[in-house]
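Review form for a predicted model. The reviewer records the input and the model, then writes brief findings.
Reviewer: anonymous (R2)
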Amino acid sequence: MTRRTGLAVILWWTGFLGFLVWAMPIGLLPQSANNHSWKPITNEAEFRQVMKELSNWGRWGPDDELGASNLITPAKRKQAAALVEEGLTTSLAHEVA
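Model under review:
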């Protein structure tokens, strides 16, 4: 796996895990029947309120172009690299019709 490919995989997983963190509280993904800490969104007003509360817009300043990628620090990259056990590559390419 090249360094660039490794970074792409890390960025993809960061985005995927970010989606899960965002999606579970608003009821887009099923949760355990024993976990009643979330309330499903039932109307557009609730959806907009949750989106406003969870938004990172402007979190890193008005000129920021990286957004949540700012959370991928050199220390996090080193931590992620330490988890690698095999040199397998995975394509994240999507065919364009």
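Findings: The mean pLDDT is 76.
Further findings: DSSP finds three helices and no strands in the chain.
Recommendation: see findings above.
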